[in-house]
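Course assignment 3, question 2. Fill in each field.
Student: A.L.
Task: Predict the tertiary structure for the chain below.
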Amino acid sequence: MSTTALTRPLVTSLIEDAVTAPSMHNAQPWRFVARTDTGVIELHGDPRRGMPHGDPDHRALHLGCGAALFGLRVGAAYRGLHPVVQLLPSPGDPWHFADVRFTGPDDADSDLGGLRAALARRHTSRFPFTEERIPTEVIDGLRAAALLEDCRLVVPGEWHAVMVMGLVHAAALYEAADEAVRAEIAAWTRTGAAGEGPATEGIPAYALGPRQYDVTSPVRDFDSRRRVPDRDAARFEKRPQIALLGTPGDAPEDWLKAGQALQRVLLQATLDGLATSLMSQPLEWPELRSDARAPGAVGGFVHMVIRLGYGPGGRATPRRPVSEVLAFG
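Answer field:
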């Protein structure tokens, strides 16, 4: 199969799709290099956008980059191309996460391309969801989406869900007691105050959602220091519907696979009419992360807790311009 030539307009449009991906604190820790002579787009992680306190092993950074890789694959399939991915192609460079070549159009994956409509619609929702339960067939479809990326999506039973929510609340207490972690979160929160980082990254005030009336909220409060005035308060659902995304292993390649699965699940959920948010807090503390999985669970290591339900879909958070994350070589 011949490799498709990479024109600048094609590459730019593919990266525009890729960068819609979620990432920890919306840090957008990815870089792309288009090698027009070989027809390869390289994906690199950007350690300068890591979280030394919340993500010291860079696992979440890999997840975000994996999600961006999946968006690139979706954009390629939508355009009639077949992306061929090699993960971690340079053993001497751990930040070189993937090489992507494109063949087609006969090899294009129409099912993959059909997810593109959800790229611009998928947003993290930090708002209350209703108590309406998600139909079993919808959950089964999300499980199947994770399996397509060699990952497992586990919907915990009642006792396990209660345990995981307990870990979420414990993580909030850990966070409140750790000044370094709270300072790191504040550095990526955009309230409009002077001296904050660029408005093209981080969590903007409009995406914070309402304050909680009590301590049962499943949503992280990025404004714990109360820097945003006049935020509404609301009660969140009593029985959050959650799913655990996991892999058998816990190495960088597993993290990149999990990131691709995460984006695939989120996009499918969006097409299914679900709102979603990510609950990574208990996974950021080693002493809590191992307790997130049920004994004997097939999913192995848990990489993300996903909250699902019916409710407001949230607004788009900003993205860095393609010119900042893409180079041609």
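Instructor remarks: The two ends are 23 Å apart (CA to CA). The chain is about 30% helix and 20% strand.
Grade: pending
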